[in-house]
Amino acid sequence: MFTAQSARLWVVGYTLAITAGLMIFLALSQQIGMRFDFGRQENFRLIDVILPTFLGYLGACAHFIFNPNGGREIDPRNSGLLRMMVHAPFWIFAAFVISLFYVHYQTHLPQPPDAPRVDPLQFDTLSRFLSVALGVLAATIGIISSYLFGIPPKRMEDASIADTPATASTRGPNDT
Length: 176
Hints:
Elements: H1 4-27, H2 42-65, H3 79-107, H4 123-148, H5 156-162, H6 165-169
């Protein structure tokens, strides 16, 4: 069974792997022959576009670790759905990003004179497509993370006990 804790571990694992992989790839892009305008630091501008999304997931996890509550669990009937919703967006993102960088590389290679015309994938188009790929993660993993790493809602009986007249009279001026 795929539990909420399993999902948390996978989200963090994927996030760390993709963050490290993209940062290393983009930092080494000139040395491996990627055709970015290094004078305009296009490779580092892509890090600026991509990194905040993944840092948000890691920040949510860091907050969760030091939060005294245990987080939310899921209904066991939704285990398979949670598994798919955790793994698939990261795989889609990874496949799409690898494809984009491959197309960017291939379309910037010198073409033989008799080859069909291929327009290069420009930086603006590449960064736009990367934003779309990040949107897939925001629409899925961002919301899933808010539940996995967020504070569970108060139970109704806890809220009703806190609001009884007996507990209200024992509260101090700074208690809510």
